[in-house]
Amino acid sequence: MFKNLTKEAGQTYHFANRNTFQGGESLSTINELVFLHQMAAPCHLALLAESIGLKTRIVKHAAELDLDKSRRSFYLITQKGSALDNKGIPLLASRLVSHFPVALYQVERDSLDQESAMLLGIRGILFADQRLDLMLTGLRKMVAEELWYDRTLLSKMFRRVVQKLDGNNEMPSDTVAMLQMLTSRERTIIQFVSSGARNKEIAHRLCISEHTVKAHISSIFRKTQSRNRVELLRWAQTYQTHFELCS
User: Fold this and answer.
1) Under DSSP, is residue 62 helix (H, G, I), strand (E, B) or coil?
2) Phi then psi for 86, rounded to 5 degrees?
3) What is the rounded average pLDDT for all residues in the chain?
4) For position 65, what pLDDT does the model report?
């Protein structure tokens, strides 16, 4: 299958039928897959993508990424060779995910917190030891705007959604209003604060200034009626199920 298809960094393959999957699924929202592949071995996942008619591009270093939203790119970040946070998630993925669709590949099992990745907005995870046919299926699903995670985790998160809906009916109206006041960015920052991240790390991961982080945290303190990070942590633990799934 991979004969004579080895690619060099920066090469791009074009396909006349790249806007349609085999099977008729539309690719109109994604124009190309961009692989950040920081290893010497060929990127076999890119070859799999080409086998279903996708335009692909491989880059070896983060500095080479062309972050132009008009290109409608889907980014796949390898865990191997990447700088990781304390959840095993590549720092670059955390920075890109609020602006572009992102998935992870070459992931070692038990080295990454899948739940944290899902809540962050990562589309899915392809493990290094997965069969090629499963990787191919995962690629197709993720580019078609579906999530690609273990069924047990998806079931767990679905139960949380149900609990959240049930819980909203039991919460006082002022508490519901407080949760609704939080913006998506503020909910994300609450998750970072809850994980122990400091302002500098949050700024780095969200590609914003520390001053902006401080402004967001001040707003969060006001909306949650917290006086400091300890009180915010207690608040987050109380309402974690409700605000995480709204991020």
Assistant:
1) helix
2) -75, -5
3) 80
4) 82
Percent of the chain topping pLDDT 70: 80
Residue with tokens 């990745």: 117
Residue 21: what pLDDT?
Answer: 37
Give residue 217's pLDDT: 94
CA distance 62 to 36: 7
Task: Provide the angle, in degrees to the nearest 10, between the axes of the packed helices 184-194 and 210-224.
Answer: 90
Tokens matching residue 64: 């080479």
Ramachandran angles phi, psi of 88, nearest 5°: 85, 10
Give the lowest-confidence range in 4-13, 64-73, 78-87, 123-132: 4-13
Please give the average per-residue pLDDT across 137-156, as a whole number: 89
CA proximity to 119, closest of 151, 97, 144, 136: 97
The answer to whether the beta carbons of residues 185 and 71 sit under 8 Å apart is: no
Domains and CATH numbers, the chain: 12-149 (3.40.50.2300), 153-244 (1.10.10.10)
Q: What angle do CA 238, 242, 246 make, to 5 degrees?
A: 140
Cα 11 to Cα 245: distance, rounded to the nearest angstrom: 38
Q: Is 138 exposed, middle or buried (0-12, 13-18, 19+ CB in 10 A)?
A: buried
Average pLDDT of span 184-204? 89
CA dist 94 and 20 (Å) reads 29
Q: Is 143 helix (H, G, I), strand (E, B) or coil?
A: helix
SS3 state of residue 146: coil
DSSP strand pairing (12-13 vs 32-36): unpaired
Residue corresponding to tokens 């790249």: 18
Structure tokens at 65: 């990424």
